[in-house]
Write a structure and sequence with these properties.
single chain, 71 residues, mainly alpha, 68% helix
């Protein structure tokens, strides 16, 4: 069965302002991710994973209590 590109759905159209907002959000997200990765890589080089392990255990415990797995 051949798939047709004509689906009957209109393509999404953005205004210039919507495109600017979308591109700005993408740029900010990219820059924040680069900064976060650099920070975490430098932290890992200087420290071990012990604090990360305790953080994960505390996060799982908090989620379990919040969602009612632990009463």
């Amino acid at each position: 069965m051949l798939l047709s590109t004509k689906t009957g759905v209109e393509p999404i159209k953005f205004t210039a302002i919507e495109c600017a907002v979308l591109l700005t959000g993408m740029l900010v997200a990219f820059l924040v991710s680069i900064i976060s990765i650099r920070f975490l890589m430098s932290f890992i080089k200087k420290h071990n994973f012990r604090i990360f392990g305790w953080y994960r255990i505390a996060l799982v415990a908090a989620a379990a209590i919040y969602f009612g797995f632990i009463e």
